[in-house]
Amino acid sequence: MLKKQKTALPALLLIYYPHSFFVTCISFQNMSLEGKKIILAVTGSIAAYKTPQLVRSLIKAGADVKVLMTNAAADFVTPLALATVSKHPVLANVSDGANWNNHVALGLWADAMIVAPCSANTLGKLANGLCDNIVCAVYLSARCPIFIAPAMDEDMWIHKSTQLNIGKVQGYGNHIIPVAHGELASGLVGEGRMAEPDDIVQHLSAFFSEEKPLKGVKALVTAGPTYERIDPVRFIGNFSTGKMGIAIAEALADKGALVTLVLGPSHEHTYHANINTIKVESAQEMYTASVAEFKDAQIAVLAAAVADYRPEEQAKEKIKKKEQDLNLLLSKTTDILAALGKIKQPSQTLIGFALETNNELEHATEKLKNKNADMIVMNSLKDEGAGFGYDTNKVTFVTPGNSAALPLQSKANVAIAIVNQIIALRHAEKTA
Ligand code: CTP
User: Fold this and answer.
1) pTM higher than 0.70, yes or no?
2) Is 352 in the pocket of ligand 1 (CB under 6 A)?
3) Sign of torsion, CA 431 196 390 257?
4) Domain final position from 162, 188, 208
5) How many CA atoms, within 13 angstroms, populate the side-chain half-sphere of residue 426?
6) What are φ and ψ of residue 272, in 5° steps?
7) CATH number at residue 391
8) pLDDT value of position 210
9) Residue 318 belongs to a domain
10) Rounded Cα distance, 210 and 187, in Å
11) Annotation marks residue 238 as catalytic
12) Catalytic residue (choose from 93, 101, 102, 238)
């Protein structure tokens, strides 16, 4: 269970919030939004008080900003303040009685739309296509990229319905600006704060920048379970859904990488233009595809839950039930991560996972060493909300001589954190 307590770990925050780590330590991007037309949609959350500052920062970066707000947002920030800083009238309704505010034209005008703060209520509407205010109407009409910066109390943020809605809006191709950890309006400390205005501007300028930090870099990701056939109708498998690996492939692709996703039997899929998916079934098929793809890859993240054993023999016909017990002889599969670790070149970054139930750090450190990986992303089945089936995960980065625990967060945010950490590792390697 996530404990709510006043925690202050400033040294670790660099790793807890890889986005700000990225911003402050590795300056790949300039904050430029020169000539960009941006719609800022403000919804009902205490973080709305930061939006005049956000408008200023966007304008300072060169953008022209028009503001929309919901009625609830007006409880936290005045339309007058936002109209004054943006130098445009603020729209709060689809019509003002005499005039109809053309949401379609607005949606077409913009180069980007930001929903910040995005309340749990608005998130739910965006996820489900509801349209009862100007923010939803413009969102549904917009053809530009949309950035969503959620803000809410931690309990609301980690609620299954919120995480489901985050997954849904992300599935529609929208960009989620990760929430931050810190003091919340409730007085508790936790996840759910809106990203700081400068981080939001950084996010947008990184998106519009041609300089994607992994532009053209080839990456390999394995994801999902493997199935080892016993006979034509039965297999040995595991509960992996593939969600974590797919989120990593998407986060790498968002940063410009050209990703090959070797995906075991999974109901999940991705439509990202930079991802080429190779579907496989067994550990052997995953091994063959991964070794072939690894040759050209600079980054490999092995997130698949690969079967360690397969039936020594596959029956050609369905095995019929008999009176006596059935013994299956299992033989070992090849460890893909260890195999890639053996052929890894100094320019390649190899990341593995470790799913543990006990002595987690010890086991993960052994895997890091034995498999010659650059980092192990460890998760424990003891942590509520982490592991198979959840949309959230709680991981610890284990690198030689170091470990850093991240808080429970969405798999999408964990994926961004992993990718930012990979970028930082590669940067450190280059400058060492
Ligand atoms: N892995 C792999 N090929 C295998 C088994 C595991 O590539 N045949 C990779 C996984 O993708 C993961 C890492 O090795 O990145 C660790 O997997 P895990 O199942 O946690 O550990 P195992 O090495 O299988 O050891 P154990 O099951 O005993 O914990």
Assistant:
1) no
2) yes
3) negative
4) 208
5) 19
6) -60, 135
7) 3.40.50.10300
8) 61
9) yes
10) 40
11) yes
12) 238
